[in-house]
Amino acid sequence: MTNNSSVLRFVSEMQALVDPDSVVWIDGSESQLDTLRALGVKTGEMIKLNEEKLPGCYLHRTKPNDVARVEDRTFICTRKEEDAGPTNHWCDPQEMYERLYDIARDSYRGRTMYVIPFSMGPIGSPLAKIGIEITDSIYVVLNMAIMTRVGQKVLDTLGDSNDWVRGFHASCDIDPEKRYICQFPEDNAIISVNSAYGGNVLLGKKCFALRIASFQGRNEGWMAEHMLILGLENPKGEVRYIAAAFPSACGKTNLAMLIPPEYLRKKGYKIWTVGDDIAWMRIGKDGRLYAINPENGFFGVAPGTNAHSNFNALESTKRNAIFTNVALNLDDNTVWWEGLDENPPKHALNWRGEPWDYRAYDKNDKVRTAAAHPNSRFTAPAVNCPCLSTEFETGEGVPISAIVFGGRRAKLAPLVYQSRDWVNGVFIGSAMASETTAAAAGAVGVVRRDPMAMLPFCGYHMGDYFRHWLDMGERLGDKAPKIFNVNWFRTDKDGNFLWPGYGDNMRVLNWIIDRCEGKVDARETAIGYLPYPQDIDRTDLDMDVATLESILDVDKAAWEKEAAEITEHYKKFGDRLPAQLADQLAGLKARLAELD
Ligand code: GTP
Ligand code: SPV
Ligand code: MN
User: Fold this and answer.
1) Average confidence score pLDDT of the chain
2) Could you identify the atom of ligand 1 that is nearest to the CA of residue 300?
3) Cβ within 8 Å of residue 48, ≥6 positions away
4) Residue 331 to residue 352: CA distance in whole angstroms
5) What is the DSSP string of 537-594?
6) Distance 250 CA to ligand 1 centre (A)
7) CB of 434 closer than 6 A to ligand 2?
8) What pLDDT shows up at residue 365?
9) Which residue of 74, 260, 467, 578 has the smallest Cβ count within 10 Å?
10) Which residue's CA lies nearest to atom 3 of ligand 2?
11) Are 388 and 431 in contact, with CB atoms under 8 Å apart?
12) 248 C-alpha vs ligand 1 centroid, how far in Å?
């Protein structure tokens, strides 16, 4: 399929290492993918679902020990330890290559080696980048064929260039003790062993499009971010683009596809989805910041997705989708998950493939009693999305008006506020915190600092990453997007969400765009600009102004505690913390001290 000598050398070296029975190059044709789907069903890797109700859809179950990203087994292997920084696990590259090759050696015996040429970004787009993933998993091949552009066309575009990312995955024994997800940013290389789950093995996604690409972006003057990209169309037909970084399972897919409340729809407001997880952003010829979504599909959280919360995501899963770790409804061979509807199936297998009794469900022990794993996912082609932006395929990128940070904070962070300027916005992003979710292995619901939602995904020293953000701001000057922070997750004393969220988040997006266009005033506070309560439109909303005011507050004592925690957080970065950010923290403390 190619004469590219660097590609051929990589494939033959890996072949010699893992010793497969055969080698199959993925050409991207439907006929080849169909053959693999049939083979996956035969081997039991994939379960074919009801062809009438879910045409072209499959279910896959992973091992119960392999259901999420594994941050404590994820490494950034730079030659110098300090270059990986205090927030990444580090290992010497030579030592890690040897360890991983020992684990993977001869592990493809009796198996097929698949070679997947893939493009992140529309093939041939000046913003796109190419990778080759080698894998022994049909699940990986079929998912990569949804999440990225794969096949012959990618190799044709690559030609004889050596500018591509080497991805190597080996399922091995799915042994959690020998599981490693390793990035070698200086070599453009990724190796993943002993997992077969989503973000650990679809190497185009977090490993390449964030960890490797963030490193490339710093060196080449662009940004790779954990951000959705949406277009907000107003009644005049003007579209403004917003990029938003929220940590895993904190609402990116939902916001990217939101359906505005009815009164706004009637006026002509609409949301267009460009991306739901990753943004690559460059400064365009006109000096503004332009973003593309490097992916070609959505790897979305299934639980909680329903026709009301996210109609467009649900629609996207109705054909040619792959479901991972959801429940199988035995009555009609379809899928189910918590929050899909109010009718749990009477005859079903849970995500582990065991008979499931809906009466035993205990929301305090979801992993054991839920039908679907809390981090169960759908892989859906972007073309299925009813609100996919017309800009999705062009590869030119969309101009970003606003950057939004956010997370899960039961207390403290108000519904929305605007940073004082770019540098202050970088400070807000660098200090972001959120409660942990099921998207990564480990405890759930613990508040941790997750700067720019990139803590698990930054491929280099985070102090340098903050510096890169500041540098980008300097280059953008007065054309820089405005920076905001949102929090949909404030709760009352009983733990109920105070803000309705989902489609109603449109009310906040409208305020954000109005701020960008200088159409609405705001109240200056110690933390930034907050909306006047009357400027958040409450039409048709069952919420009194007092409740809204309660989530638009700045509590002096709580923010002083926050500032103290940020001080601790910042200590990690040592002398690589940009002085401007230390100044920002001092400024916040000074403004808080002035409050009564
Ligand atoms: P990753 O794919 O892991 O990066 O996640 P994501 O950021 O795309 O999160 P997603 O949109 O899939 O949402 C994760 C969970 O948050 C789901 O259970 C949603 O139902 C819930 N969620 C999303 N938006 C809102 C909101 O506005 N309010 C509330 N209360 N919950 C929300
Ligand atoms: C995330 O965890 O942020 C995801 C899912 O988007 S995964 O691809 O597993 O990283
Ligand atoms: Mn994500």
Assistant:
1) 97
2) 2
3) 37, 41, 58
4) 18
5) --TT----HHHHHHTS---HHHHHHHHHHHHHHHHTTGGGS-HHHHHHHHHHHHHHHH
6) 4
7) no
8) 84
9) 467
10) 248
11) no
12) 8
How far, in Å, from the CA of 557 to the mean position of ligand 3? Answer: 33
Whether 251 lines ligand 1, by a CB cut-off of 6 Å, is yes
Domain 5-45+73-220 in this protein, CATH class: alpha beta
Tell me the β-bridge partners of 244.
228, 404
Task: Tell me if 424 sits within 8 A of 386, measured CB to CB.
Answer: no
Instruction: Kindly report the CATH number that applies to the domain delimited by 225-297+390-591.
Output: 3.90.228.20
First-to-last CA distance in the chain? Answer: 71
CA-nearest residue for atom 24, ligand 1, is 251
Over residues 47-86, the pLDDT tens digits come to 999 999 999 999 999 999 999 999 999 999 999 999 999 9
CA 115 – ligand 1 centroid, Å: 33
Give pTM, 2 decimals.
0.98
Q: What is the DSSP letter of 346?
A: S
With the most atoms of ligand 1 within 8 angstroms of its CB, the residue from 253, 259, 366 to mutate is 253
Domain boundaries, the chain: 5-45+73-220, 225-297+390-591, 298-384
Distances (CA, A) of 490 to 80, 132, 229, 483: 41, 43, 24, 20
Residues in the chain, total: 596
Percent of the chain with pLDDT over 90: 96
Distance CA 59, CA 293 (A): 26
Residue given tokens 């964030």 in the structure block: 210
CB contact at 8 A, 483 and 403 = yes
Contacts with 213 (C-beta within 8 Å, 6 or more apart), sequence order: 120, 129, 224, 280, 294, 459
Residue 4 CB–ligand 1 contact under 6 Å? no
Kindly state the average pLDDT of the residues 31-56.
98
pLDDT in tens, 256-289: 999 999 999 999 999 999 999 999 999 999 999 9
Atom 8 of ligand 2, nearest CA residue? 199
Report the distance separating Cα 425 and Cα 254, nearest Å: 23
Please tell me the residue having the least CA distance from ligand 1 atom 2: 300
State residue 226's pLDDT score.
Answer: 98
Q: Tell me, using a 6 A CB cutoff, whether residue 501 lines ligand 1.
A: yes
Q: Mind telling me the catalytic residues?
A: 250
Q: Which residues pair with residue 381 across a beta bridge?
A: 297
- Name the residue among 594, 374, 411 with its Cα closest to residue 497: 411
Burial 263-279 (b: 16+ CB within 10 A, else e): ebeeeebbbbbbbbbbb
Do domains 5-45+73-220 and 298-384 share one topology? The answer is no
| Predicted local distance difference test score (pLDDT) of residue 554 | 96
**What is the mean predicted confidence (pLDDT) over 160-178?**
98
Q: How confident is the model at residue 362 (pLDDT cuts 50, 70, 90)?
A: confident
> Which residues touch 465 (CB under 8 Å, ≥6 apart)?
85, 214, 218, 451, 452, 454, 458
Options 3.90.850.10, 3.40.30.10, 3.30.300.20, 2.170.8.10; CATH for 298-384 is: 2.170.8.10
